[in-house]
Amino acid sequence: MSQPVEAAAQTLAPPAGEPRLAESAARAAELARLLGGRRGERHLVALQDFPDPDALSGGMAYREIARGFGIEADIMYDGQISHPENLALVNLLELSVLRFEEGMELEGYSAAVFIDNQGTTTHLTERLAAAGVPTLAVIDHHDPQDALDPIFSDVRPVAAAATLLAEYLESGVLLTMEPANETHERLATALMHGLHSETDGFVHARPPEYSAAAYLSRYMDSDLLERVLCVQKSHATLRIIEEALRSRVVRNGFSVAGVGFLRIADRDAIPQAADFLLSEENVHTVVVYGLLDDEDGREVISGSLRTNKTTLGVDRFLKDCLGSDPRGRPYGGGRARAGGFEIDIGFLTGDSEDREQQRLKWALFDRRIRRKIFEAAGVEDLDEVCGADEG
Ligand SMILES: [Mn+2]
Prior knowledge:
alpha/beta, 18% strand
């Protein structure tokens, strides 16, 4: 009776599962041999400038692994952690990460390790090179970039860096995970959050992520994961989402909203507002932007694009739509389903005292950006969506 079902299950079983795990076990063994000869060293784990949960949990995993070999590791980034969910991750997991500050001495590190990046998305690369710190390892899942020359390199096209680190742990070669160990619980929770956020809540996960998640689920603390995921939004963020909702214009499935002036500290409200507007029926693509007041008086238009239209090439769309700055650098770019842009408004900066001036300035940029986006989206009646007063 069960015979045909079993036969069917066998033909459907993914054949690639085991070779991948065997490869991870081999890499883990190679890393173990390397770390075995480095007792007493201090390593720096370099994360991208805006570390996300995938990077943070990967750094955490390396630090735990290194500890077992008598190696201390500091996790560092040279930018900002501002998304509330990432801050919650750092706080709830009591994860100590260092933000690079001018004057910090990097010479004391024996080696650098790059996780979830290959040195091209962190300013630490140049600083480490200047300090003469050699690159020990690169563990990443992005396309190979060959910017570094590490002793150990594991760059494979899985959906998250956390997948690779979870597979290292599963091999048991680098660290023995124990069910009641609080540190291991936090680590498994962090890696699970990394997988979750990198795959948009497992919607874009593939077999390696599901199998890594199955392994991590044996150790993770689901209450803790729930607390990390259910971060409440700040009043400022809600106010910006409200403004986006009020000012949005929807045409041909494109929803475009300018939210006016906002503080740099509230910048992450822009992608959050974009995520929110994407949940409206019949909308497939959202662009939200606002005018940021930088600490040093610089003013920048900052925007986010979110789409669930698989045929929209986000990177191309933003580059075609917004063009480049005078030095030829594109104002915007992106990856699948998400992108962003920043336009320095240069000599129009300032006069923040003069309210009327500020209002006019915003109205000007708001109309121009909306016009460009709808133009690129192929919307016909631009006068109607952008205001007939523009020439
Ligand atoms: Mn990643």
